[in-house]
Each structure stands twice: as structure tokens, then as C-alpha cells.
């Protein structure tokens, strides 16, 4: 532990917090550089989320970000359906289109492991995907749309 204010071990900060502070990283979550993980999901969901997060970090286009989100939905046991055709009984009410197409909803059987995984993982993951999109130089680059040259 690193003592960041000289007041003794009771005020010690984890090295990651000190490094983040020195790097100018915004502090949130009670002084931590990143939040403590929430409830532990099953290993398959955790593995899928980790792989998707690693792919998201490497995404260089909006198409790649969209593909990562789509793959994660399938890896968590869900399917995708255009919102206007979605069955309210099976649709998870989270738009995964990222504004790149018409709204798309994940779906899974109600009260299933897949539905639980989707509800637990997708909201926070989509927030990260939107952040990645916002940082891309041209968020429409790589989209397969007829209106872009």
C-alpha cells in the first residue's frame, strides 16, 4: 500500500489509485480508479463479457463496435430482433443498435439464464460501447449504408 498523505497506514491507498491520481485520471467510486465488480455472474457470462470488452477496446469502426455488441448478445444466449417485430414477452427492453440503425432489441425466453445474463451485462456494456463510438474519429466510417461513399 502507498501512503498518499503521510497520515499513516489507515489512510493508505491502493497503488492503482495513486497511479491514476498521478496520471490525472478522474477519480470515482470512493477513490478507486474503477468500480469494484458487482454481483458475480456465472463463469460463461463473465468470460463472454471479458472477451467482448477486449474486442471493444480494439474496435476501430462503428461496424466493429456493432459487431462486438451483437456477438456478446449471442454469446450470452440471446438473439436480436428489430424492435418493431419484437415480442414483448421475450424482448429485453434495451436498444442495442447504438443509434447506427433502427432500434434492435435482444430477446431470450423469460425467466431464463440467458435473460438474466442479458439484463445483468448489457446496460453497462452498452455504456462502454457508446463511449468507444464517441471517441472514434468518424462514427459512420465503415458502416455499410448506401448514403455514404
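-> sequence recovered:
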Amino acid at each position: 500500500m502507498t501512503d498518499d498523505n503521510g497520515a499513516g497506514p489507515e489512510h493508505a491507498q491502493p497503488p492503482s489509485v495513486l497511479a491514476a491520481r498521478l496520471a490525472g485520471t478522474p477519480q470515482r467510486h470512493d477513490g478507486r480508479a474503477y468500480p469494484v465488480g458487482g454481483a458475480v455472474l456465472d463463469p460463461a457470462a463473465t468470460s463472454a463479457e471479458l472477451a467482448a470488452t477486449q474486442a471493444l477496446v480494439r474496435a476501430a469502426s462503428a461496424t466493429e463496435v456493432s459487431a462486438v455488441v451483437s456477438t456478446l448478445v449471442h454469446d450470452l444466449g440471446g438473439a436480436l430482433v428489430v424492435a418493431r417485430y419484437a415480442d414483448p414477452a421475450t424482448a429485453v427492453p434495451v436498444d442495442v443498435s447504438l443509434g447506427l440503425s433502427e432500434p434492435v432489441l435482444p430477446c431470450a425466453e423469460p425467466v431464463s439464464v440467458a435473460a438474466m445474463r442479458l439484463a445483468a451485462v448489457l446496460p453497462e456494456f452498452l455504456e462502454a460501447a457508446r463511449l468507444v463510438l464517441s471517441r472514434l474519429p468518424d462514427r459512420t466510417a465503415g458502416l455499410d449504408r448506401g448514403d455514404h461513399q
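DSSP finds four helices and four strands in the chain.
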